[in-house]
Amino acid sequence: MSTGIQSHHQAALDQGNFLIQHCSACSKHVYFPRESCPHCGAADLAWVTPSGHGTVYSVTTVRRKPDAGGDYNVSLIDLDEGVRLMSRVVDVSPDAVRIGQRVTASVQMNEGNEGKGLIVFHQQSGKATAAINSEAAETKKEAA
Ligand SMILES: [Zn+2]
What we know:
Elements: H1 4-14, E1 20-23, E2 29-30, E3 45-48, E4 53-62, E5 72-79, E6 84-87, E7 102-110, E8 116-123, H2 132-143
Bound molecules: zinc ion.
The site of zinc ion has 8 residues, from loops.
């Protein structure tokens, strides 16, 4: 079931903006978006833009036939804000993703899903270190 809060989160993603929540009562970050803080129960959650930087907590390679798109990885990423999310590390061989690796988030438009925004992660090196905000801005420009 999609609540208003989750719809807001997806709508922001569709515009290239990755948002998480911050609890003003206990100062912890919250993700996936919800009505009330899972740490302290307060309903006082504000939308914030995360740094986008995180660390790979675990990684699984999902095998897929080449004509179905090839192998991909499903990774659990710990954001520096202290929340964990399931995502994919892209632009790297699925087998090359390592636990403890530093990664940076960006929003990818999922063509197979009616242009819905999807959070993916990139290896933190060279050009991939661009801040999430500038990447989101670029995505927006291309979509316009
Ligand atoms: Zn709280």
